[in-house]
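User: Second chain of the day. Same drill as before.
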Amino acid sequence: MRKLISFFVILAFLQSCGGKADKKEPAVADITKHPDYQKGLELISQDNCFTCHKIEEKFTGPAYRDIANKYVGDDKAEDDLAEKIRKGTVGVWGTIPMPARADLSEENAKAMVRYILLLKK
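Assistant: Same format as last time:
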């Protein structure tokens, strides 16, 4: 335990002392604080979407990050992807079908999509 604490103290010291004062790093937004992130993650978790999808890697379905990157700059992505969630789809990412979620409200489907789209790199 002491080694772990010592490691973090040294790491904090090195980080605070390193670099030039005039060098400005661009601020990276913490997307986990974004309300769309929180709401979408909650809905996706409740709906067991992580059974088939992972954030970084293809599983049964495509990785959420791959989906987000594919639709960067697509103004219709939110509507199109929400419809695919509600109606189901096959063939876009392979031959395994994604089952329809007709019982899911359009609002909740769009909240899920907004979460996914925040994961772009």
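The helical segments are 2-17, 35-46, 64-70, 77-87, 106-117.

User: Great, on to the next one.
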